[in-house]
Amino acid sequence: MSKYTRGPWLPHTDGADAYVQCPDGRHFIIGDIIYHEENKANAHLIAAAPDMCEALKLVRDGFKNGADYYDGHVSSDKNCDCFFCLGADVVDNVLAKAKGI
Ligand SMILES: [Zn+2]
């Protein structure tokens, strides 16, 4: 798995294009905002990605901790369908997608 560029990432526009700016000064071009205004919102969304990954890791840990205390949880069952295990699976799937897995 490759590592992504360290955050924080900041959304940026120059009047023609939307970018994501990284701490090392590099910019990732998202697209033009002249014909595609939504690229400004896309830049904000993408810039929040590193923070969202960290937040999702906390949410996943919360689901897993919840499962440990939930009476209906079957810890030996990898296919447990309790609320906590299902929540942890959903978050794990999103994090895997973010990692390109
Ligand atoms: Zn469970």
Keywords:
101 residues, alpha+beta, 2 domains, 3-stranded antiparallel beta sheet, 3 helices, 3 strands, 48% helix, binds zinc ion
Structure explained in plain terms:
- The chain is α+β, with helices and mostly antiparallel strands and 101 residues long.
- It folds into 2 domains: 10-47, no CATH class; 49-99.
- Helix content is 48%, strand content 15%.
- The chain has a 3-stranded antiparallel beta sheet with strand order 1-2-3, with helices on one face.
- The mean pLDDT is 92.
- The site of zinc ion (ZN) has 6 residues, from α3.
Layout of helices and strands, plus pairs?
Layout: E1 10-13, E2 17-21, E3 27-32, H1 38-47, H2 49-69, H3 83-99
Antiparallel strand pairs: 1-2, 2-3
Helix pairs in contact: 2-3
The structure holds zinc ion.
The set of bound ligands, ions and cofactors reads: zinc ion
Strand percent estimate: 5-15%
In angstroms, what is the radius of gyration? 18 Å
Counted beta strands: 3
Number of domains: 2
Task: Give the H and E element order.
Answer: EEEHHH
- Strands side by side in the biggest sheet: 1-2-3
Structural class: alpha+beta
Q: How many H/I helices?
A: 3
Main sheet record: 3 strands, antiparallel
- State the distance separating the first and last CA atoms: 8 Å
Low-confidence stretches: none
- The average pLDDT score comes to 92
Shape: elongated
Portion in helices = 40-55%
